[in-house]
Design a protein that fits this description.
Layout: H1 2-19, E1 30-31, E2 57-58, H2 61-64, E3 72-83, E4 89-97, E5 103-108, E6 111-112, E7 114-120, E8 123-126, E9 128-129, E10 139-144, E11 148-155, E12 161-170, E13 182-184, E14 188-192
Parallel strand pairs: 1-9
Antiparallel strand pairs: 2-11, 3-4, 4-11, 5-6, 5-10, 7-8, 7-12, 12-13, 12-14
């Protein structure tokens, strides 16, 4: 395991040198940052929520190489080497619908319930969190059709404790293709800080059109 973690850290170092960004070294849980568009209008939503333009794409030959048959899956590629922001290094996260059914996911202002977890003290724990809106209009659903995927990005993080990570996506209990209300990504290695298990990043509302207080 130590060898795998060392290789992962080396990969992130090379990523930083190549793009000029660095991994985030923070002492808090990051707020959810995965925003998506939809392949189908949510006719039951109240309306007035933020609609993101990152709509699902058709699965390409490159994406097919990482697919498992007849599965809805999350694929993390830490070696994909992208710039998450001008100063922060990142990597690709793909949410892929390779099933034969359209999938409906809960969302808040186009933010899906996808967060990073760390395996620490013999259990999986959140090091990212999903804020809650006090406005009912924020809540709606997004849809992804068969043979489509969302192309997403996540920041690289680092800290004092080497560990194993994954992403968890809440899908609910209304889909017959799922055996669990959550879907998990492949596991990957890196490091984090212990305070990321408890302290939240926090948020200050910018006005009445910003219904989030955390």
């Amino acid at each position: 395991m130590k060898k795998l973690i060392s290789l992962s850290v080396l990969s992130f170092v090379l990523l930083q040198v190549s793009f000029g960004q660095i991994c985030l070294d923070v002492d808090y849980k990051l707020r959810g940052y995965f925003y998506v568009g939809t392949s189908q209008i949510d006719s039951t939503a109240l309306g007035g929520f933020y609609e993101d333009s990152n709509t699902p794409k058709r699965v390409t030959s490159a994406i097919k190489k990482v697919l498992k048959p007849n599965r809805f899956q999350i694929v993390v590629q830490t070696d994909s080497s992208i710039a998450f922001t001008e100063k922060t290094a990142g990597f690709k996260v793909f949410v892929i619908n390779n099933s034969d059914s359209i999938v409906k996911l809960p969302a808040q202002d186009s933010r899906i319930y996808l967060k990073r977890q760390v395996f620490y003290k013999n259990k999986w724990q959140d090091i990212e969190y999903l804020p809650s809106s006090w406005c009912g209009n924020s809540y709606h659903s997004v849809f992804i059709r068969p043979n489509e995927y969302w192309d997403l990005e996540a920041p690289c993080i680092e800290g004092k404790i080497p560990a194993k990570f994954r992403f968890q996506l809440f899908v609910g209990d209304t889909h017959p293709i799922f055996n669990d209300p959550n879907v998990y990504s492949n596991e990957f290695y890196g490091s984090f800080n212990k305070s990321q298990l408890t302290k939240e990043e926090g948020h200050e509302p910018t006005g009445i059109m910003d219904p989030y207080e955390n």
